[in-house]
Amino acid sequence: MGSSNLVFGVLCLLGNIVVTLAKSNRDICSPDTLAVYRIKMDSHWYKNSFPKQYPTSRPPAQFSRLHGIVHNSSYILWREGLEATPEVRLIAEKGSGEILEQRKGVRDVFAAGRILQGVGMTETIFYSDAKHTKVSVISKIVPSPDWFVGLDSIELCMNGYWLNNLTIEAGPIDAGTDEGFTFTAPNWASEPQSPISMITSKNPSHPANSFYYPYLNELPPLVTFHFIKERVYRANNKRLCFGPKHKKSKFSKISTVVVPLPDSTSRTLHKRLHARRIYKKAARRSVDCLLSEWSEWSTCSASCGVGFESRTRSILTLNKRGGTPCPQETRQTRWCGQQTNCIDKFFNW
Fold first, then answer.
1. Which of 23, 51, 188, 203 is the most buried if burial means most Cβ atoms within 10 Å?
2. Model confidence over 294-309: pLDDT tens digits?
3. Which residues contact 29 (CB under 8 A, 6 or more apart)?
4. CA distances (Å), 285 to each of 75, 120, 251, in order?
């Protein structure tokens, strides 16, 4: 669930990391919670900060749409030192991420719009639950051979609590799929493919590198990511079950009258009375509550965003005479929905 350590894609980070964590019962990362976060990406690609080969046209400096995935520790979107997957390569080279779909270990897929200039902002929301508390994002630097900005497996649940706010500065990253050194370099595929690496003021060390500023200790931040907790939903399965009031059975007192009878009639009557006593004895036994099976989960109440779904079971037989009572819960509700179906279609680079 939560972790005492924040897990970051270290090579994508520059400068400050600011974390705000509020501890209250409603912020616990419990299995029945769904946290809604807003992610903002502010870009700082100023010409004064990055004067070398600053792109001004065809196309000017900008960023593709922001692609993101909410997942658990079993899934990796991208990671420094590993080779880029085909989907990351497509984003880094083309800015397209239509193949980012849900799969094992993934809770939600989201996207935010493009930033059409070097300085701007884009934002969107996403959902995280206690089983999927990590988020990874990626956005192509436009123009560039295969460069992007992003975050790797950012942990949103810290010490068992949902983070309130998180701010991270990030710099350019090389996907390792293209040989180009400059923003407008031709598409020369790397053979063999290189691992993902951080672009710094001194690396790659080639003078033609568009981000090569050897006199700087580090590059200024290219973008800043902000995570803001909007709301925490908590599923409530407690629903009281009230059956009809049940009165205790009352048996009428019958006076016994002894009447001499013929032997055959006496034997027949004795059998009938014996059977009646057995029936009454069985009728006085306890009866346990009997429930039906749970129904299938209903259709989610929202096709885009947070909704709820429910299932029910019915009482077939009420308990009697000290039998096992009916449980209070005959209806269960849980949250559902995702941001995937809310993604708008943007122009793909």
1. 203
2. 888 888 888 777 888 8
3. 1, 2, 35, 130, 133, 157, 160, 161, 162
4. 57, 76, 14
